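Appendix B. One record, verbatim.
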Amino acid sequence: MMKVDGVNYNVNNNLKLEKLKKACADFESLFYYEILKTSKDIFKSNLLPQSVADDIYNDMFYVEVSKVAAEKSEGGVKDILFEFLSKGVVHDRGKNYLNNGKNVSVSGQFISDLLA
C-alpha cells in the first residue's frame, strides 16, 4: 500500500504542476495581449475607418499571437512565476520567504487549493 500512496502522490503533484504551468503560460499570454492591445491604440490611424468587425478580428488575432508568444518564450514571466509557485506545490511546504523585509509563509496547501 505504501508504493501506491507514493505513486498517487507523484501523479497528483505532476498534475498540479501541469495545471500551474498552464496557468503561468495563460498569465503571460494575457500580459502580451494587453501590450498588443495598447499598441493598437497608440498606432491607430484615421485614414481608413475601422468597423466593429475589424476590432473583433484584431482582438482575436492579438489573442492568438499572445498565446503563441507565451508558448514559445523562454525565461519570461511564466518561467519566473512557475519557478516560484512550484516550490509551494511540491518542495517547500511551509517555508518562509522574505517579502519587503517581512516573512511570508508559502503554504503548499493554499497553492494546491488554487489549482484544484
